[in-house]
Structure formats: C-alpha cells, structure tokens
User: Which sequence fits this backbone?
C-alpha cells in the first residue's frame, strides 16, 4: 500500500519532476544564494557574461525588399566579375583545353606501351619525346626553304620589276601612273629598311608569343598525360556512389573516342603528307618536297578547310616554278581530296568517333566560329561525346517516361 503521507509531502515542479517538500525552506523564504525565477526573456547571469553588448535582435527577414534587392545585386556583380575573369583568362583557358585534348589524344599510345610491359612514366616519356622530335623536325624541314625563298625574292625583286616592263599592259600602266619607277624607288629607299625593321620586330613578337604558347602547351600536356589516371580518379570521387560506375563507364568511352579521333586524324594527315611527298618527288620539286609534305600534313589536321589550305600552298609553290607544274599540283589535289573525303576519312573516323557526316560539318563550323582553329579541332570529339550522352542517357530516359 503506498504511503499517502509521503505522497502528500511531495510536490511537482512545472517541468513535472518530483521534489521533496522537505527540500524547500520551512519559513517560506528562498535561499539567499538562489537567484530566484528570472523575468521572462531575461537571460541568467552566467549567459550575460558572454553578451557584453546585449542580446542580438531577430535576423533580417528574407522576404523583405531590401534583402531581395541586395542579394540580387550581389549575384549580378558576381556574374559580371566571373564573366570578365573568363574573358581576361581566355587565352590561358584555351591553352589548358588544348593541352588536355592532346593529353587525352596521346593517352592511347601510352596505354599501348603499358600493355607491352613498359611503366607509365617511361611510356609517357617515350611518347612525349616523339612528339617533340616531330615538331623539331618540322621546324628544321620548313625553315631553310622558307628562308632561302624569302632572301631570293628580296634580292631579285628589282629584276622582277624590270621583267614586268616587257608586258604591254604593265608597260601601259607604268607610262600612265609611273608604277615601276615608284616601286623601284620604294625598294631602294631607306623607308623600306625602316618598315622592314618594324615588320621584323612585329614578326619577332608573334614568333616569341607562339613559341611561349607552344612551350606552355607542351609542359601542360606532359603534366596532364602523366597524371591523367589520378585526375580521372579525383573527378570520379566527386560523383555520388550510386551513379559513379555509370558515369565512369561513359567518361571512359568519351575519352576513348577523343583518343580515337586524334589517332584517326593523324592517320589521315599522314596519308596526305606521304602522298604529297611522293608526288612532289616525281613532279620535280625535290628541294621542297619534305617541307611541303609536312606543311600539308599539319594543315590536314584542321577539319573542312585544312586540306584545301595545304593544297593552295603547294599549288602556289608549283606556279612559282612553272605554270605546268602548278596545274599538275592543282589536278593532283582535286583528285586526292575526293579520295580522302569519300574513302579515307569516312573509313578511319567511322571506327573512332562514329559521328554522322552532317553533324561533323555542323560541329566544325560552330567550333571554328567560336574559337577559330582550336574550336574546329575540338568540335568533332565534343560532338561525339554529346552524341554518346544523348544515346545512352537522354534517349533511354525518354523511352521510360
């Protein structure tokens, strides 16, 4: 049986906890050390020690016009700042994108050497040394003929003017406007030297800028190529675990297609360079065959217009030698481009990127409009990546909806 007296001797505080009545003072007074109940909203003395400047007020409501306007203004300023930063660093970003593109394109060659038992560091060094040797060989092959032709043209320029006087039309124009005399005076005057010096300085600046950009691209390519597995692993860790495997598979396929595109483009360019070298050796331009073949191979890497630019350059060199050789170059490139466009290029690219021809042309045009030659180079692998995402992600999702 519970004791009624003990139950009556207990009281309950507002929180509902039991408390002995004997614990309270018998005379109805509170203990002198007991601060007593605090006024509603007033903090205890222990908390007042940490708030020397008073209690903070309520936070500003997010629905107020001031808060909305201030936040919107900060967002606009941040967007403007980021846009200006991107525009200012556009050249650096282009170099980074090109370096990453080259690293992804060279990665299949590195992995092929790895499958043969070579460590990745040694495989990267081998591929990178081969790339440097190609550019150095290209420079040594094209620089001497270009220098000789420029020097010869400047030296024989007055003689060319004398030969022009034998033409009736030119002679008649010279009698009316004194063109030959003015041209000869310009070539022998000090003004030409001043302008040539200024031109040389301008060309020197362009060459130094191009050399610095090329050096930067090579260094970044080496870095990206050596650390590409670590970069991929770090990016995959940012993906949620539930989707990581699928994203990894799609990304690996995209990188494989980019590498396939680079390999295919190099195969097509090699075919163009070799065919040009053989033709020029047979046609009689042995002195410039190697330089022009490398030039055609380099231009052939540019989609749509690269092969045409290389053909025009070779045809002009042939015309400087003789009219018959120039016409022979023109006929050769008309026939070869038909063979490349309808036989070589489709067969090579069908196995690497699997992009429809119409989409290839549209992507190259858009990329060239946005970023010039760099955009045209990156357009086709970008289109291949987007097409893969559409086929594997968007289309299945639409089928399930």
Assistant:
């Amino acid at each position: 049986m519970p004791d009624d007296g003990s139950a009556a001797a207990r009281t309950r505080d507002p929180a509902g906890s039991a408390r002995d009545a004997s614990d309270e003072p018998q005379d109805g007074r509170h203990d002198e050390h007991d601060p007593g109940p605090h006024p509603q909203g007033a903090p205890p003395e222990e908390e007042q020690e940490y708030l020397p400047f008073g209690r903070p007020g309520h936070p500003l409501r997010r629905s107020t016009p001031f808060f909305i306007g201030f936040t919107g203004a900060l967002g606009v300023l941040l967007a403007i700042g980021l846009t200006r930063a991107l525009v200012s660093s556009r050249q650096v970003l282009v170099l980074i994108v090109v370096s990453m593109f080259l690293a992804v394109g060279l990665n299949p060659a590195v992995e092929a050497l790895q499958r043969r038992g070579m460590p990745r560091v040694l495989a990267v060094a081998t591929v990178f040394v081969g790339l440097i040797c190609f550019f150095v060989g290209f420079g040594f092959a094209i620089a001497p003929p270009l220098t000789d032709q420029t020097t010869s043209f400047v030296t024989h320029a007055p003689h060319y003017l004398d030969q022009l006087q034998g033409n009736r039309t030119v002679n008649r124009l010279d009698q009316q406007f004194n063109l030959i005399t003015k041209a000869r005076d310009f070539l022998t005057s000090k003004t030409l030297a001043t302008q040539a010096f200024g031109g040389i300085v301008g060309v020197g600046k362009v060459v130094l800028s191009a050399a610095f950009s090329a050096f930067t691209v090579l260094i970044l390519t080496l870095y990206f190529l050596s650390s590409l597995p670590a970069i991929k692993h770090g990016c995959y860790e940012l993906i949620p675990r539930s989707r990581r495997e699928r994203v990894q598979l799609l990304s690996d396929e995209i990188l494989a297609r980019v590498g396939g595109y680079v390999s295919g483009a190099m195969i097509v360019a090699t075919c163009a360079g070799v065919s040009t070298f053989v033709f020029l050796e047979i046609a009689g331009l042995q002195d410039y065959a190697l330089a022009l073949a490398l030039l055609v191979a380099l231009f052939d890497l540019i989609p749509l217009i690269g092969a045409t630019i290389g053909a025009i350059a070779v045809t002009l060199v042939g015309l400087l030698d003789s009219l018959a050789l120039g016409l022979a170059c023109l006929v050769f490139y008309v026939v070869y481009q038909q063979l490349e466009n309808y036989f070589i290029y489709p067969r090579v690219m069908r196995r690497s990127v699997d992009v429809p021809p119409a989409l290839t042309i549209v992507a190259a045009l858009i990329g060239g409009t946005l970023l010039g030659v760099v955009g045209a180079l990156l357009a086709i692998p970008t289109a291949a990546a987007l097409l893969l995402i559409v086929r594997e992600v968007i289309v299945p999702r639409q089928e399930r909806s």
